[in-house]
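Title: Comparing notes on inverse folding

I've been comparing how different people in this forum approach sequence design from structure. To keep things fair, I'm posting one structure and asking everyone to reply with a full sequence. Here's the target:
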């Protein structure tokens, strides 16, 4: 009986030590994320969306910017899925149907640009000098145009006649994507500044 109790106590102690060590390992990364996120437009969202990746990011500006782009991509994908489902909802009036369709097109284009920027960013990490600047300017341009696209999405919902739950719902989705993309662009710009 005593040996079983000893084994249980040792097991609990090992679990506790493991959790404590893991938490301690992540703390510097969380501080790094927090201080980096203080420079973006939506710092709370930045921290919330990037903290789960603290182990991957560690204290790397490159990994931080790359992860922010991946978060933007995932958010864009879920918004695209949402708009695809919304387009098939019965009861949308023709103007709402058209606005949702236009928005879907714009979000799909943004998704493509963020995807390209992630691929290009990986190339940047290996480069220096003029080559780095050229590839990095591609990343910045694509993320910036993705952000512009996301903001354009709401244009089709203009006017009093378009007020209602569909517009509110789409706006919430688009704002969510636009905010993480804005943060990603700021972190990419920070990385570019420090690396060049």
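Reply #1:
Here's my take.
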């Amino acid at each position: 009986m005593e040996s079983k109790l000893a084994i249980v106590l040792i097991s609990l102690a090992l679990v506790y030590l493991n959790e404590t060590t893991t938490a301690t390992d992540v703390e510097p990364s969380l501080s790094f994320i927090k201080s980096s996120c203080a420079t973006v437009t939506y710092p709370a969202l930045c921290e919330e969306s990037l903290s789960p990746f603290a182990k991957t990011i560690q204290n790397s500006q490159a990994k931080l910017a790359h992860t922010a782009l991946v978060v933007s991509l995932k958010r864009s994908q879920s918004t695209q899925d949402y708009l695809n489902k919304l387009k098939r909802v019965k009861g949308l009036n023709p103007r709402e149907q058209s606005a949702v369709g236009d928005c879907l097109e714009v979000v799909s284009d943004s998704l493509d640009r963020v995807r390209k920027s992630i691929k290009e960013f990986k190339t940047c990490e290996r480069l220096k000098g003029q080559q780095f600047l050229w590839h990095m300017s591609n990343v910045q341009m694509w993320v910036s145009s993705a952000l512009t696209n996301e903001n354009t999405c709401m244009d089709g919902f203009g006017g009093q006649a378009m007020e209602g739950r569909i517009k509110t719902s789409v706006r919430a989705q688009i704002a969510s994507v636009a905010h993480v993309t804005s943060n990603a662009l700021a972190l990419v710009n920070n990385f570019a500044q420090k690396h060049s």
